[in-house]
Structure formats: structure tokens, C-alpha cells
Write a structure and sequence with these properties.
Distance between the termini of chain B: 136 Å
Distance between the termini of chain A: 62 Å
Strand order of the largest sheet of chain A: 1-2
Radius of gyration of chain B: 46 Å
Largest sheet of chain A: 2 strands, antiparallel
Strand order of the largest sheet of chain B: 2-3-1-4
Oligomer: heterodimer
Structural class of chain A: mainly alpha
Helix content of chain B: 40-55%
Shape of chain A: elongated
Radius of gyration of chain A: 28 Å
């Protein structure tokens, strides 16, 4: 099916193959456009952008909750059918048109500039809240340089007879996270003022990001040697440490035990598809930008497959490590629970100390239940279930700041493990932020909103400063709830819409034939039948399905958010509360404006063309002899 | 004489035994968890250990109530269990049939808690006085929170980095500019050299007037 929409003037807007060859030679002699020092830098940057916090704290949870080992099947299938084709598309189009996201879509057709603008907005919004998570990670990192760790103790109450009530009812790690870090309020509309320590952490996170991104890939390209490789080193250290701890194998078994029935559940496939899409950081515009700094004949097909495989393997590896530590924590909690019950029995019946242990606890309990049921009924014995401990709060910020920190305080030499863990999370997030900043700064430069003569340092500085100031929303007492809101709405539907538009634009507006010829020019052979089928039909279809289901789920559920409320009955479990009505405007701004900018800018360009009928001279050059024949100053007689 | 003292001792211990009962109003229950605390190095609980306990409690009472000389016999123990838990009451040295009031015993134990614990190599959790909560040690709060120190170090490094990069880029730009100026200077020098070599007349039509005429 060779559907191609009419696209006049395309050849004038994009460099031809001859132009590309000429530019390639000029660039090797040195020019202003940045380029990668070597292939490793490019691959590390892309891997760093793709591998982020989601690999560590979203994938393991999805894997475990959707049937363990069986989840690999939908994940791998969708990786191959959705992730790799989209990745190859973004790499190829960036390498061919040699511009950032706005430049690429403007070159294909000026009416499509909206896709670039949407990518810019989404990168900006996601960058704002992602760097807030980095600020929280930095806060925990700063606090890890002490022994004992601050989240291992509850503060004492006023008369020093016991601990603060909120801490006693929940746990030390919960208290440190919700009270001493976030100082969270009980509702999203209770703003509660800025928390100065979070503001300081935000300043630290944004200035560290600025120093790494200050000159674009010249500086961030050096930083990725550390930020992209360190996480793997730390994961390996944690794996070795984890496997020597008691309970780790229970955790890994829990993760990978397959439940084939989950494959029948459509939610499993949807979650797998969404995870693949978000995990690849597609539609942010950063990948297009990074790819445009490559040489023209770089093998983008190989890169796409390689990076996809690395991303997938990293997810599985990280899941193994995380669950070995979670298994250890669950085992510790289980032992503590049994130990408490044993102590109660010993104290009530005055048995000698070692008469009841973990192994004979059950028999003793049944025996006592028969002989003295009333006494047993009066005791506050807890039910200790390993499965419950293993499935507690293991995704998102809950995993990193509550579950994992609790596991760390139970290990010997806790500050070391805390520092390593938070440095790893920080590196994972920082390398993703490089891609985000690239996806904001380069389109800003291309759009020409600010004077082009301003150096890149200024653009980068303005972006970081602006995002810092806007991101102060997240430093309020209700900041956690705002972040969850941004995460659900700004980082979900707009990306799917942009990704779909990108695919449709390249295949049907740019033209799949032209695209195939471009790839043949760049890497030497035409893309095979797999790419043709996936680009034209399968990947867009998968994305439409995911988008439709996403929108339907969001619309049918009445949106609620989880609050930490001491007065709630379910405390310390989070309570669901519904949003106030003015939140819907915010949701519309977050999700709607990036999506609407695609048709909006198209309409604007259309009106501009029709009513003003101005032709754009900036891209055309005057054909004159002096331009074609280079007049050299060094004519020697 | 000897018989009298013997009779009195028996009487006092008999009285003491009557005074000490589980759930006595002026008594406290003590619970020891030696195996939990010491593991392999746990010592067995026997009459000698009990003697040490009574002696240390007498010491605590002496420290608290100045003037009164408490003896080991004033500490009466009963209801020992294999858990290692027992009840004790403290009789007054002035009147063996009178018990020292609960509040005083509690104060005495609180004051000398550390000494009693160390006599047995135990802690507040493993040598429990049921009903006397230990005063918890406040977590150490240094004057400058450690996180601020680390924050200061990191921010210092970051600002140094930013300034270094900005200065480097300004220096590089200046070098590029002066580099271009150098190229133009060398070109201007080429022409006069041709004149010095020979006795030729400088023919203006062959001069390279590109730099002068600007397109």
C-alpha cells in the first residue's frame, strides 16, 4: 500500500544526498556543528538516555505483578515489534536530515512543526518533574554520609519516653520519607509552603545538570563515560552482595515464577507495550538530536538493534538485583515478625528462651491453641506471611525511598550501600536528563524564539533556571502529589500521540520510498521486509491500540490520588482521595496542550501561508557564480 | 545469741516470702533474655547469678535512699521461672516487714540502670523491669547536619566547574578571533616580500585587491 500524501517543495527544504556527502567532507575538516568524539560516546549517551529510573523501579514491579517469567514474552514481542522500529526510525530521520526535532519536522513539512513543538513541551514538563526526583535522590545521598543512617531511627517524643506517634504507627523509613523529606500535607490543595531543604536539593540537581550540559554534547559527552557505566558496576556489586544475603533467592524466585494465565489478561500486554514505549524515551526529540550529530554513513540500523537489546537486558538485570534485595528485606521482616510472636509466647507462658524457634513456632502455636485457646486469643499475635512482605510497595518512589532504604539499614556497613545505591540512581537519572535537555535546548534554538547569536551556554542556562523556578511547585508540602499528577498526565498520553504522529509523518508524508532510499544511501542496503512491515502497519497499529486503551482507562476511572494522612483509618497505608475540580484544568494543560500544539501549529502555518503569502527566503540561497565557484584569497601568481 | 539472730533471720525471710507474691503492689517483675543478648557466650542462670542480682539491687537502693543500709537480705525474690523471670520486692532495713514503696524502687532502678545492666552484660531490652520504661537515649544531633556539609562540598565543586567551563569558552573564542587576525596578517605580508626580492617595478594591475574590494 503506497499511500503518500502530497508534499510539495520537500526537496528544497532538505539537503540532497550530494549535499550530505559534501557536508560530510567539510565536517571532517572541522565546522561549527557539534559531533561525537567517537562511536562509544554516542552509544553511551543513547543507552544512558534510554536506561533510566524506569528500568529500576517500574519494570521489576510490572514483571512480578504480571506473571513473573511469563511477562518476558509480551515484553520481548513488543520490544521487537514496537520499540526497535520506532528507535530505528528516529535515528535514521535524525541522521538524514541533520537537525533537532523541530528542524526535522519543519524540513519534512512546515505544517508539521507542531510535532517538534509538542516534543519540546513534553521534554520540558517531564524534565521538570524528573529532576525533582533527582533532587530527592540527592537529598538521600547527602544524608547517607553518616552512621547510623537518619532513616534507621525514629525521633523521640517530647518527654523522651517513646518515639513520635507517627513514626511508631508506620516505620522509620516511612517517617523519614513522608515527614522529614517531603513533610507532606494531606491533600493536593494544601500547599503548605516551600521546604527549604528540598529547594536546596533542587538547586543542587539543576546546577549539576547545567555544568554537565553547558556546551551540549561537548560536555555531556564526557560525562556519560561515568554516568552511563557506573550504574552497571553498582548493580553488579549489589547483585554479588544480594546473593550472599539470606532470602535473596526467595525474592528472585518470586520475581520470575511464571504464571502463564497472565498472558490472557489484556492489561499485561498493554502494560508491556507502554513500558517498552516509555522505556525507550521515544518522542522526546532527544534521540533525533543525538543521531543528527553522527556522520552520514553511520549504521543506524545496527545502533537501534544494539541499544534496544541493551535496554531490554538492563531491565531484566536490574529486576534480578532489585528482587534479590527485596527478598532479603522480606525475609528479615518475616524473621522479625516470627521473633516478636515467639517472644510474646515465651513471656506469657514463661518458657525457657530457646525452646521456641522459628522452625517449631507453628507446632507450638497449634499445641497451645488447643490447650489454652483463650490465652492465645488474647495475645496480639501477627500473621507472618512471606508473600505479603514480598509484594509490599515495590514500584516507583516507594521502592527506592522506602523498601530499598529499609533493606539497606538491615545490611552491615549501611552507609556504604546507601551511598552506592543513590549514586547509581543519580547517574541513571542524570544521563536521562541529558537527553531531556537536548530535547528542549536544540528546538528552542531552532525555533528562533530567542536571538540565534546567543551562545548555547545561555540557552542551557535559561532552560535550567526556568525549569528550576517552575519546579518549585514540587518543593511545596504537597509537591509529591503534584509530581504524581505530572507523571500520570504529562508523561503518558502526549508521548503516545507524538510517537504516532512521527511514524505517520515519516511513512506517509515524507514517504516510505524516499526514506528507504535515504537509508540505502546512508548504510548501504535497503531496509528489509521486517522494517517495511513494522513501519507501515504493525507499530502504528500497536500505538493506536495502546493510546485508545490508555485514554479509555483514564476517562472511565474517576481520578484519585494517594495521600499520607495520619488521621485516616487505613494509616499507614496510603488513602485514596479524589481530585478537587480545578485540577482538571491543570490536567488539560499538561496533557492537552502538547497534543493540541500539533494541529494548532499546523493551522497557524496554514493561515500564515494563505493570508500573508510570504515565501521563506532564509533556506534558499541565491544562485550566483561567486557562490558556486569559490573565490580564494590565496591565488598565487 | 546465735539462736536469736538465727530466729530473726528465719522470721525475716519468712515474712519476706509472704510479702513477695506475683502481682504484688510494691513489687516488680524482672525478665532476662540472656541467650538473645549473648548467644554463644550466654552464662547459665543459677543461684549465684541471683545473688549478684540481689546485691546489685541493694546497691541501687543504697545509692538512692541515702542513710539507709540495704543488705542482700532486703531484696526478696519469688516466682522464678525457666524463662528467667521473677518477682522481687524490697523490704526496708529499718523494718523487715515493711516494703519500700514502688515509686522509690523505680527511681532507684532508673538511676543505677546502667550499672545493673553492665553487671549482667545485658541492655535495657534484655534485662527488663516490667513497668519501668527505660529513658531512651536521644539520637545524636550534631550542630551542623552532615547533609549540609556534603551539599556545600558538591555545590562548591559544581560552581567551580561552571566557572571553569565558562572561562574556557571565553578564552577559546578570543583565541579563535586572534587566530583569524593572524591569518590575515600573514597574507598581507606576502605581497611586500615579492617586491624586496627583485628590482622590479610594482605593477598595480597584478595586485591581489580582493581584501580591499568587498562583495
Amino acid at each position: 500500500m503506497k499511500l503518500k500524501l502530497p508534499n510539495p517543495g520537500l526537496d528544497d527544504r532538505i539537503p540532497s544526498h550530494e549535499d550530505l556527502e559534501r557536508m560530510e567532507k567539510e565536517e571532517t575538516e572541522g565546522s561549527d556543528r557539534p559531533k561525537w568524539d567517537n562511536k562509544a560516546q554516542y552509544l553511551l549517551t543513547c543507552v544512558g538516555f534510554c536506561v533510566g529510573l524506569g528500568n529500576v523501579w517500574r519494570f521489576p514491579y510490572l514483571c512480578q505483578s504480571h506473571g513473573g517469567g511469563a511477562f518476558m514474552i509480551p515484553f520481548l514481542i513488543l520490544l521487537v515489534l514496537e520499540g526497535i522500529p520506532l528507535l530505528h526510525l528516529e535515528f535514521a530521520i535524525g541522521q538524514r536530515l541533520r537537525k533537532g526535532s523541530v528542524g526535522v519536522w519543519r524540513s519534512i513539512n512546515p505544517h508539521l512543526t507542531g510535532i517538534g513543538v509538542a516534543s519540546l513541551l513534553v521534554s520540558l514538563l517531564v524534565g521538570m518533574y524528573y529532576n525533582t526526583i533527582m533532587a530527592w535522590i540527592m537529598w538521600y545521598l547527602f544524608n547517607s554520609f553518616q552512621n547510623p543512617l537518619p532513616w534507621s531511627q525514629c525521633p523521640l517524643n517530647a518527654n523522651r519516653t517513646g518515639v513520635v506517634e507517627e513514626c511508631a504507627r508506620s516505620s522509620t523509613v516511612d517517617y523519614f520519607w513522608y515527614r522529614e523529606t517531603l513533610n507532606t500535607s494531606t491533600a493536593i490543595d494544601e500547599s503548605g509552603g516551600l521546604q527549604w531543604w528540598i529547594v536546596l536539593s533542587l538547586v543542587a540537581a539543576w546546577s549539576l545538570l547545567y555544568v554537565c550540559c553547558i556546551r551540549g554534547i561537548e560536555t555531556s559527552g564526557k560525562a556519560v563515560y561515568v554516568t552511563s557505566t557506573l550504574p552497571y558496576l553498582v548493580l553488579t556489586i549489589f547483585l554479588i552482595r544480594g546473593l550472599t544475603l539470606k532470602g535473596s533467592f526467595e525474592g528472585i524466585k518470586f520475581l520470575f515464577t511464571p504464571d502463564v494465565n497472565e498472558l490472557m489478561n489484556p492489561a499485561t500486554w498493554l502494560d508491556a507495550g507502554a513500558q517498552v514505549f516509555y522505556s525507550f524515551s521515544l518522542a522526546f526529540g532527544g534521540l533525533i538530536s543525538f543521531s543528527s550529530y553522527n556522520s552520514v554513513h553511520n549504521n543506524c540500523e545496527q545502533d537501534a538493534v544494539l541499544i534496544s537489546l541493551i535496554n531490554g537486558c538492563t531491565s531484566v538485570y536490574a529486576a534480578t538485583v532489585i528482587y534479590s534485595i527485596i527478598g532479603f528485606r522480606a525475609m528479615q521482616n518475616f524473621d522479625d515478625c516470627i521473633g516478636d510472636n515467639v517472644l510474646q509466647l515465651l513471656n506469657t507462658f514463661n518458657y525457657p528462651e530457646d525452646s521456641i524457634t522459628g522452625s517449631n513456632y507453628e507446632e507450638v502455636l497449634t499445641h497451645l491453641n488447643q490447650t489454652q485457646p483463650l490465652v492465645i486469643a488474647g495475645l496480639p499475635l501477627q500473621t507472618c506471611d512471606m508473600q505479603v512482605f514480598l509484594s509490599q510497595g515495590v514500584e516507583g518512589t516507594g521502592l527506592a525511598f522506602i523498601v530499598f532504604t529499609e533493606a539497606i539499614i538491615k545490611m552491615p556497613i549501611s552507609p556504604l550501600w546507601a551511598v552506592l545505591f543513590f549514586v547509581m540512581l543519580f547517574c541513571l537519572g542524570l544521563s536521562t536528563m541529558f537527553g531531556n535537555i537536548e530535547g528542549v535546548v536544540v528546538p528552542l534554538q531552532d525555533l528562533g524564539v530567542l536571538p540565534r547569536s546567543w551562545p548555547k551556554e545561555v540557552f542551557c542556562g535559561l532552560t535550567c533556571l526556568g525549569s528550576l523556578l517552575l519546579g518549585l511547585i514540587f518543593a511545596q508540602r504537597s509537591g509529591n502529589y503534584w509530581l504524581a499528577l505530572f507523571d500520570s498526565f504529562a508523561g503518558s498520553i502526549p508521548l503516545l500521540v507524538i510517537g504516532l504522529c512521527e511514524m505517520v509523518s515519516v511513512v506517509y508524508i515524507y514517504g516510505i520510498d524516499r526514506f528507504n532510499k535515504d537509508i540505502e544511501f546512508m548504510i548501504g542496503h535497503k531496509p528489509n521486509i521486517f522494517w517495511q512491515v513494522t513501519w507501515r502497519f504493525i507499530s502504528p497499529l500497536i500505538m493506536v491500540v495502546i493510546l485508545v486503551f490508555y485514554v479509555v482507562t483514564q476517562v472511565t476511572q474517576s481520578p484519585t490520588y494517594l495521600v499520607w494522612d495520619e488521621a485516616a483509618e487505613s494509616f499507614p497505608t496510603l488513602e485514596a482521595r479524589s481530585f478537587p475540580s480545578w485540577i482538571y484544568t491543570i490536567i488539560f494543560i499538561l496533557a492537552g496542550i502538547p497534543c493540541l500544539s500539533i494541529p494548532g501549529v499546523a493551522l497557524y502555518k496554514f493561515i500564515q501561508r494563505k493570508c500573508c503569502k510570504q515565501e521563506d527566503y532564509s533556506d534558499k540561497t541565491v544562485d550566483s557564480i561567486s557562490a558556486t565557484v569559490a573565490m580564494s584569497e590565496k591565488i598565487k601568481f | 545469741m546465735l539462736e536469736k539472730t538465727f530466729f530473726l533471720l528465719c522470721l525475716s525471710s519468712a515474712l519476706g516470702n509472704e510479702l513477695c507474691t506475683p502481682d504484688a503492689s510494691d513489687g516488680y517483675k524482672v525478665r532476662l533474655s540472656i541467650n538473645t543478648a549473648l548467644g554463644d557466650e550466654a552464662y547459665p542462670w543459677n543461684a549465684n547469678e541471683m545473688f549478684l542480682f540481689r546485691a546489685s539491687l541493694a546497691f541501687a537502693m543504697r545509692n538512692h535512699i541515702a542513710g539507709q543500709i540495704f543488705e542482700v537480705s532486703n531484696i526478696v525474690v519469688c516466682d522464678e521461672t525457666p524463662r528467667v523471670s521473677f518477682w522481687f520486692v524490697v523490704t526496708s532495713p529499718l523494718n523487715p516487714s515493711e516494703l519500700v514503696n514502688k515509686g522509690n524502687v523505680e527511681e532507684a532502678v532508673r538511676k543505677s540502670r546502667n550499672r545493673i545492666n553492665s553487671a549482667f552484660l545485658l541492655s535495657d531490652n534484655t534485662l527488663e523491669f516490667v513497668g519501668i520504661p527505660a529513658i531512651l537515649a536521644a539520637p545524636v544531633n550534631p550542630d551542623t547536619p552532615p547533609w549540609l556539609i556534603v551539599f556545600g562540598v558538591v555545590m562548591g565543586l559544581v560552581f567551580a566547574g561552571i566557572i571553569a567551563v565558562l572561562v574556557l569558552s571565553v578564552v577559546q573564542k578570543k583565541r579563535k578571533k586572534s587566530g583569524k587576525m593572524d591569518d590575515e596578517d600573514t597574507e598581507v605580508e606576502i605581497r611586500p616580500k615579492a617586491m624586496e626580492n627583485g628590482d622590479g617595478v610594482y605593477n598595480l594591475s597584478f595586485t591581489d585587491d580582493e581584501p580591499i574590494t568587498q562583495m
